[in-house]
Amino acid sequence: MDKSSPLVDKFFASVTPNQPFSRLTSPQPPDYGDLKSWAAFPGKKSVALLEPNTESQNKLKEVDCFFIHPTGFFLKEWNFDMNTDSATSQRTDLMLATQATVFNKECNIYAPEYRQATFAAISQNLGRNSSQALDLAYLDVKEAFRNFLENYSDGKPFFLASHSQGSLHAQRLLTEIEFKKVFSKQLIAAYLIGYPLEEEYLRNLGASVCTRFLDEGVIIQFQTVGEDVIRSRLKFWLFDGKEYCLKKINQLATTNPISFSKSEGWVKNEINSLLMPKISGISPLFDYGATNKNNSYVREINYADDQNFYARIGKSGFLETKGSTIDRILKNDYLGEKDLHIWDYQIFWNHLRKDVETKVNKLKGNT
Fold it and tell me: N or C: which end of the chain has fewer CB within 10 A?
């Protein structure tokens, strides 16, 4: 799947489980009637409530956002046991602070913890082990969404949002026939960022679940890279209607989040958009072997000083970027692949936020 190097091989050896996947040894399923099973929930203290240059607001809104966070689990087990005293839980907080906060001005945020598959399962071809670990994670996401609809949604309009592994599961969630009526009537838009969404897959969703999914702006997907970059990965885990399997990507359904169009020309950023978290202490984000929580936490989020960047949809379908902002980020690109995966939300944070606001105002009939 990926180009191999001694450094990459060593990393994967350190995070790949030694034993085969087994339901018998998997962590116990979460109880979504318990607030401990939610990383963010209305009324619960969470970094998902942080806003730039202002105090956090925790007032109930008329619109919801169901947010599925990405992978933060890098240990040699197939699925996360949802231990809130773990480094994995801290990584989730960082992702909530830089991703889920996009939606907090307009939405109540519901972000479930789940038995996420370990990074090795989603980033490598580990056969049935990968497929089964991802399937276990999805069962939690589906149950959390069902719980959200039955106990908290009360028919309100909502956004579906996600990143990386979360977006893989969100794609599958949209295929569920039991939620067809809900998606047709209550879903405003889905931000399925950081994982491939094929044009063909989207057309199938439109035909089987909701034709509105084919309307521009209803489903937003992009994967960020540097200029003229084609990712080395050739296949991705995708749901084929029965199970997760490796599939080659043909045509990506990509939206440029600056212009919110599918134009292939360069579009210049004209606003404060790139978001940076201020962290107290040393974040466990890049200490992949960390197991226990340390004393670091996200203190605040603010816009970066350098906001000079452009974006375009490249020939490969990935979202290409350039500018001094991107150059600064890529100074730490040790592998030289110009992959900006973990920056997908942060770079376009305010563009996404403004799009959410526009959609909510339109829903309310405001200009």
Answer: C
Q: Are 162 and 100 in contact (CB under 8 A)?
A: no
* Per-position b or e across 173-199, b if 16+ CB within 10 A of its CB: bbbeeebeebbeebbbbbbbbbbbbbe
CA distance 280 to 296: 5
Task: Look at residue 98 and give its three-state secondary structure.
Answer: helix
Query: Burial level of 55, CB count in 10 A (0-12/13-18/19+)?
Result: exposed
Among 169, 112, 179, 176, CA closest to 136: 169
Which regions of the chain does DSSP assign to beta strands (E)?
Answer: 38-40, 63-68, 107-112, 158-163, 187-193, 219-220, 224-226, 235-239, 244-248, 267-268, 275-280, 297-303, 310-313, 319-322
Q: Which two tokens stand for residue 121?
A: 């399962």
Kindly tell me if the per-residue pLDDT of 367 is higher than 60: no
d(CA 138, CA 144): 10
Alpha carbon of 23 to those of 74, 112, 144, 184: distances in Å? 19, 21, 19, 34
| Residue 293 predicted with pLDDT over 60 | yes
Q: And the tokens for 178?
A: 């039991």
* Amino acid (1-letter code) at residue 165: Q
Say if CB 286 and CB 15 are below 8 A apart.
no
Q: Which pTM does this prediction carry?
A: 0.95
Give dist(CA 78, CA 26) in Å, integer: 8
Number of residues in the chain: 367
User: Following DSSP, what letter does each residue of 144-190 receive, concatenated?
Assistant: HHHHHIIIIITT--EEEEEETHHHHHHHHHTT-GGGHHHHHHTEEEE
Spatial neighbors of 181 by CB under 8 A, at least 6 apart, are none
String of DSSP letters for 41-67: -TTS--GGG-BTTB-------SEEEEE
pLDDT number for residue 161: 98
